[in-house]
């Protein structure tokens, strides 16, 4: 200590202060490189759940305007990172796509997906890669989608016939309901082929599917506060058990039928489920083989992914067309020029309808039916200096991204299809400012089918009919309120009166 005797008290204070500042700097530097994204403080137990309201994508967007494009919430016990701009989405969905390619486990996957055995809910890994490949090659390839063209066209013809009847009697129709039924029937036919006959016989399959979609879309407290799950406070477990048992009985019946005569079933039934079943029976390598539970889980998940999505997307486009009569007129003009008034639109015409396709893009930009996309990180990662530990739920806020004011400088809240003139911005997952089908490894596997259905149904509706709002309502009166569930739907029915406008009368 002798050697330090020359130091005065003043010197000692100076040295200690410098050391303290150096430590503080090092600590903050270290902490900064490992800090969590910013976000609002949560309450005990529920965390930030109370801040999400009835429309979480909108509430999260508002919060992100305060806390930034990468924000942390704690919903119940679950840490969630919310991504809200195209630049941030690029960091997650392009740079780190593999790390966030897993899915959170929710109660829905226990009941509807036989414990996350389906393509939509299963964790990222060899099983998901295998089933995704099988779906892409055998179920949802362009040639397979083409092979179901007569089914789609037949169902659309039924819809048009039904609407012509309504037009004759000047009836007001709930167009969303009619669209929903037509697309539902198309989807059942594609998935179950001739097995569909059992749906109308003894099994109450359709109401069960509707109930399970409702349950899957409801906010389930047990997903975020697992300890309350055993008390089943919302009665969801009880309802899930009932519907999943009934749906399982139906699927077992189909599998029995198949097992009794596999070759005949493949030749005559021809639905997605027969392809899945043939993969169960085939002499494929173990890797490509599906077991019975996997067949059932995938059939139900593909049904759930496809059944409402296209119809709801058409309903939103249709709502925008009713609010913007000049856009409706322009679409009709294009259809008249390209197709004429003496024949119906066919699928092969769809690529020629440039303006209609811009209208669909614009509607999907402001009304992405999945306002939020959920992923889960499978490794620790650091993005923009934010440390995000393995197991964090990642919430890609498509609603916020698709309306980002930097990416969409001209009135991002407005419906304006002309914004796509002379741009090649596309919604297939490469352009981060427009993500209605998601992006990266887990992007929508049924995009081509969904898009084809939306284009065909919409083109037919606008080509065949003029549309009038009832009770003297004006376009500005069309209610655009949303309800958030498994998908974002209209809050009120869309009521309209059709008038037939074509010269063909034997469609
Ligand atoms: C307009 C209609 C549709 C829209 C807007 C839509 C949108 C989406 C979105 C946003 C995702 C999540 C993507 C992600 O996490 O990155 C998704 C996933 C998926 N969709 Fe679609 N979808 C539509 C139609 C369909 C149809 C008709 C089918 C099949 C019949 C289908 C099958 C799937 C499947 C299997 C997945 C899960 C993919 C995976 O996790 O690997 N979708 N869809």
Architecture overview:
α7 runs antiparallel to α8 (175-192), α7 (149-168) packs parallel to α20 (447-464) and α10 (205-217) packs across α12. The strands form four sheets. The protein has a four-stranded mixed sheet. A three-stranded antiparallel sheet has the order 3-11-8. It has a two-stranded antiparallel sheet with strand order 5-6. The chain is built from 20 helices and eleven strands. Mean pLDDT is 89; it is low at 28-32. The chain has 507 residues and is of the alpha+beta class. It has helices spanning 9-33, 56-67, 86-95, 107-111, 126-139, 142-147, 149-168, 175-192, 197-200, 205-217, 221-224, 236-260, 262-268, 272-281, 292-307, 309-323, 325-338, 354-366, 398-402, 447-464, and strands at 70-75, 78-83, 173-174, 372-376, 381-383, 386-388, 393-397, 465-468, 482-484, 488-490, 495-500. Helices cover 50% and strands 9% of the residues. A hairpin with a 3-residue loop joins β9 and β10. The protein has one domain (35-500): Orthogonal Bundle (Cytochrome p450). The structure holds protoporphyrin IX containing FE. It is found in: Membrane. InterPro entries: Cyt_P450 (IPR001128), Cyt_P450_CS (IPR017972), Cyt_P450_E_grp-I (IPR002401), Cyt_P450_sf (IPR036396).
């Amino acid at each position: 200590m002798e050697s330090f005797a020359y130091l005065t008290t003043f010197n000692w204070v100076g040295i200690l202060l410098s050391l303290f500042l150096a430590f503080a700097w090092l600590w903050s530097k270290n902490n900064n490189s490992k800090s969590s994204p910013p976000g609002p403080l949560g309450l005990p137990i529920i965390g930030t759940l109370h801040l999400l309201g009835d429309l979480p994508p909108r509430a999260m967007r508002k919060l992100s305007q305060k806390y930034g494009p990468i924000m942390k919430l704690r919903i119940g016990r679950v840490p969630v990172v919310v991504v809200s701009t195209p630049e941030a989405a690029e960091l997650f969905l392009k740079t780190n796509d593999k790390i966030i390619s897993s899915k959170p486990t929710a109660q829905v996957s226990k009941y509807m997906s036989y414990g996350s055995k389906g393509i939509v809910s299963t964790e990222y890994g060899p099983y998901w890669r295998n089933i995704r490949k099988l779906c892409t090659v055998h179920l949802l390839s362009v040639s397979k989608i083409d092979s179901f063209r007569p089914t789609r066209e037949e169902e659309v013809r039924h819809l048009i016939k039904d609407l012509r009847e309504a037009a004759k009697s000047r009836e007001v129709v709930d167009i969303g309901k009619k669209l929903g039924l037509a697309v539902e029937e198309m989807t059942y036919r594609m998935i179950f082929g001739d097995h569909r006959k059992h749906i109308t016989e003894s099994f109450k399959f359709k109401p069960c599917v509707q109930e399970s979609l409702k349950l899957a879309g409801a906010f389930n407290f047990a997903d975020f506060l697992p300890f309350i799950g055993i008390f089943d406070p919302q009665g969801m477990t009880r309802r899930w058990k009932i519907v999943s048992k009934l749906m399982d009985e139906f699927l077992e019946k189909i599998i029995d039928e198949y097992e009794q005569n596999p070759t005949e079933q493949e030749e005559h039934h021809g639905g997605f489920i027969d392809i899945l079943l043939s993969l169960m029976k085939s002499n494929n390598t173990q890797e490509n083989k599906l077991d019975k539970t996997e067949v059932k889980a995938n059939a139900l998940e593909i049904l759930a992914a496809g059944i409402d999505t296209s119809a709801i997307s058409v309903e939103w486009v249709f709502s925008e067309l009713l609010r913007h009569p000049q856009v409706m007129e322009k679409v009709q003009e294009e259809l008249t020029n390209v197709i004429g008034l003496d024949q119906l639109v066919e699928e092969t015409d769809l690529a020629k309808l440039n303006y209609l396709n811009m209208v669909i893009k614009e509607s999907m930009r402001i009304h992405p039916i999945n306002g939020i996309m959920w992923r889960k990180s499978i490794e620790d990662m650091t993005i923009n200096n934010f440390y995000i530990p393995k197991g964090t739920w990642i919430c890609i806020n498509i609603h916020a991204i698709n309306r980002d004011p930097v990416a969409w400088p001209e009135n991002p809240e407005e419906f304006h299809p002309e914004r796509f003139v002379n741009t090649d911005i596309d919604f297939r997952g490469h352009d981060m400012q427009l993500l209605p089908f998601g992006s990266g490894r887990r992007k929508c596997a049924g995009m081509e089918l969904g898009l084809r259905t939306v284009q065909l149904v919409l083109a037919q509706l606008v080509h065949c009919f003029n549309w009038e709002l009832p009770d003297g309502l004006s376009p500005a009166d069309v209610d655009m309120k949303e309800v958030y569930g498994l998908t974002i739907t209209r809050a009120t029915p869309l009521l309209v009166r059709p008038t037939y406008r074509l010269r063909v009368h034997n469609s």
